[in-house]
Amino acid sequence: MTDLRKYAGMALIALALLALPLVLTSMGTAWVRITNLAILFVFLSLGLNIVVGMAGLLDLGYIAFYAVGAYVYALLASPHFGLHLPFWVILPIGALLAGLAGAVLGAPTLRLRGDYLAIVTLGFGEIVRILMNNLSAPFNITNGPKGITRIDGLNVAGMSFNSTDTLFGISFTGPAKYYYILLLLLLCVIAVNLRLQKSRIGRAWVAIREDELAAKSAGINTRNVKLLAFAMGASFGGIAGGMFAAMQGFVSPESFILQESVMVLAMVVLGGMGNVWGVIAGALLLSFVPEFLRYTVEPAQKMLFGRLLVEPEVLRMLIFGVALVLTMRFRPAGLWPEARHRREFGEKRA
Amino acid sequence: MDIFLQQIINGLTTGSVYAIVALGYTMVYGVIQLINFAHGEVVMIGAMVAFTVITALVGAGLPLPPIVLVFAGVLTAVPVCMAIGYLLERVAYRPLRHAPRLAPLITAIGMSIILQHLALLIWGRDPRAFPQIMEVTSFNLGGAAISSVQIVIILLSVVMMGVLTWFVYRTRFGIAIRASAEDVRVAALMGVDANRVIAATFIIGAAMGAVAGVMYGTYYGIAHYTMGFTLGLKAFSAAVLGGIGNLAGAMLGGILLGLVEALGAGYIGDLTDLCQWPVFGGLLAERCEADGHVILLGSNYQDVFAFLVLILVLVFRPSGLLGERVAERA
Questions:
Q1: Closest chain B residue to A115, measured at CA
Q2: What does each C-alpha distance from A219 to A198, A213, A214, A312, B197 come to in angstroms?
Q3: Contacts of A115 in chain B (CB under 8 A)
Q4: How many Cβ atoms are within 10 Å of A212's Cβ, its own excluded?
Q5: Interface contact flag, A123 B103, Cβ < 8 Å
Q6: pLDDT tens for residues B80-90?
Q7: Residues B322, B246: Cα–Cα separation, whole Å
Q8: Which of the residues A140, A185, B25, B127 could staple to B239 if both were Cys, CB 3.0 to 4.6 A apart?
Q9: Which of B106, B115, B229, B236 to mutate to test the interface with A (most CBs of A within 10 A)?
């Protein structure tokens, strides 16, 4: 009986998720795009969750891996170099290169303490951004601040994802089609994360987070396992970056600034470090709240003061900052904490 | 003009500013073994406040000499920044002193984001230009130019370093700070008020940061709400280079980093001109003929040096040049 109810519930959720873009399209295609970006941020948060939440390594340059994935896609599928490889070739390359970048960053820094790591990753994120901005001379690789345009969209079995198609009398717009493929990818990513969490590696990460010395003496090769966390987290970022490039058709260094890293971190922290479902909820919450603000705060201010006093963009960052501070002070294990994390933070609180 | 000497002078100037900011990081780190992530924003706010005061005074049209104007700006910026430094300690660090290490780092990042965007709200997105209140005179020094601003920055930094050293090594409160850096709990048992000492390190660091912010802004002629980020990162790199937690190390690290950056920016273009290497010169013959040079890395990579220095130090000598502390502590 309970099984039946469980399956019925799951079927309902599945139906709701499948029907979502159709409902959203009626509100305007913009909402489908926003939803798609929110799903990308769920990818990113889950990737960062491996590094910060599970292994307890504070990474402040995470967006760099997103950038690597996006630029790999942009360079291999655009007129910039005249290459037009199919996405199923590029995405794994992007994930691999991002993972490699993660390992390269991790190798010299992982034996250091947490706060050093944080600042080195911050610097690494800056280096990647400076490279994206400047690798246009003497050889034009990234096209500098102008970015790369006219990136190929996804194309599966002859069906382009950038145009509207009609199927069974329902018209599916480009963003709606991306939604479905992102949803599919998301399910895979969630499944991988849930499996990872319970796996030998996942438990090793948690052990390192809680007591590195004890983990080491229990026979865990802490250096390799930490490197793996970095590389795996980074490769999730790489995949998300590739999808971002395909979806937007345009990448430029502006999309990969520190603020984005902070945003992903805020999602992980607010949702509950280490808990896959909490992180997903945090990512969705922090993706949609600013959008609602955009539609409510702006008109409200114009009505009250006659002009825009606080830009929604600024307000968004202020909210992230406040969310980070308040979460850590009053609910350090996040809104939806992982059981073990809750115990860890709860015990040590004075 | 002698480029080498010129870059040394420029490097010493920026290096002095890095050193002063680095002292703020290193003092806090010495006592609580945590990085004050929002220190760069304090420096930025110092510059912004001083610029606002100076601009307002100039706008008021009072017949004050430039030195008084700048002094008024600094005198306003310092208390504001001290208050922010204290606030940082109370909000982001003190409530989480016994929490897992990750927690205060995250609150500090949150505070840094809040401060940066409050500054954006107050002062706007556009860079603030330093009002033209004084004639900058240049002196010739062995074929290189040194401006009055550079002389003041270097001298003021030396004075501040001297005063801080005297304070930490010669006064009673300085001894309390050093005792706490050695071991907070034992110092507390000896009657040192740990809360006061920790708050003091934040406040002193912020006061020096305010002055550094004004110096940096005056030197480059502009202040911007994002300036604290890069400056903070560089100063932190300087502190690590010298050995974090070590006052002399922060000073040395700052000056060295300034020199490395200036010399690097001055010479990297020539060093990475591919045309001078026979291998590339052959491959790129056409472009070398046309332009005379194919520069791989220009001076726009200046900001990368600090991070490279940071990573190299962390790999080869994590305790820094003068640091006796072991960087690895679980």
A1: B35
A2: 18, 10, 9, 50, 41
A3: 34-35, 101, 105
A4: 15
A5: no
A6: 999 999 999 99
A7: 7
A8: B25
A9: B106
Residues of B in contact with A126 (CB under 8 A): 230, 233, 303, 307
- Give the Cα separation of B87 and A45 in Å (integer): 30
Question: Measured between alpha carbons, how far is A50 from A69 in angstroms, rounded to an integer?
Answer: 18
Contacts of B153 (CB under 8 A, 6+ apart): B13, B16, B17, B215, B218, B219
pLDDT in tens, A244-276: 998 888 888 888 888 888 889 888 988 888 888
Q: A305: which strand partners? A: none
Q: Is B26 on the interface with A (CB under 8 A)?
A: no
User: Which tokens go with B110?
Assistant: 């949150």
Peptide bond into A337 cis (omega under 30): no
Residue numbers in A near B310 (CB within 8 A): 119-120, 123
Q: Name chain A contacts of B97, Cβ cutoff 8 Å.
A: 350
Query: In A28-135, which ranges are continuous DSSP H helix?
Result: 29-48, 63-76, 87-109, 114-134
B319 min Cα distance to partner chain A (Å): 11
Q: Is B278 exposed, middle or buried (0-12, 13-18, 19+ CB in 10 A)?
A: exposed
The distance from CA A211 to its chain's CA centroid, rounded to whole angstroms, is 27
A348 contacts B301? CB cut-off 8 A: no
Rg from Cα positions in chain B? 21
Question: How many CB atoms within 10 Å of residue A157?
Answer: 4
Encode B119-136 in three state secondary structure. HHHHHCCCCEECCCCCCC
Closest CA to B29 of B150, B173, B201: B201
Record: contact A58-B106, CB cut-off 8 A: yes
pLDDT in tens, A147-199: 888 787 777 766 666 666 666 666 667 788 888 888 988 999 999 999 988 89
Query: Which of A176, A198, A220 has its CA nearest to residue A274?
Result: A198
Residue A98: its pLDDT value, please? 93
Helix H or strand E segment including B206: helix B194-220
Distance CA B22, CA B310 (A): 13
| CA A241 to chain CA centroid, nearest Å | 8
Q: How many CB atoms lie within 10 A of CB A235?
A: 26
A115/B101 CB distance under 8 A: yes
Q: Are strands B138-141 and B128-129 parallel, antiparallel or unpaired?
A: unpaired
Residue-range domains of chain B with CATH: 3-316 (1.10.3470)
Question: B211-242: b or e for each residue (b if 16 or more CB lie within 10 Å)?
Answer: bbbbbbbbbeebbbbbbbbebbbbbbbbbbbb
The residues pairing with A251 across neighbouring beta strands, listed in sequence order, are: A148
CB pair distance less than 8 Å for A328 and B287: no
B29-62 pLDDT, tens digit each: 888 888 888 999 999 999 999 999 998 988 887 7
Quote the CA–CA distance of A66 and A63 in Å, as a whole number.
Answer: 5
Query: Quick one: residue A158, left, alpha or beta (phi over 0 = left, psi -120 to 50 = alpha)?
Result: left
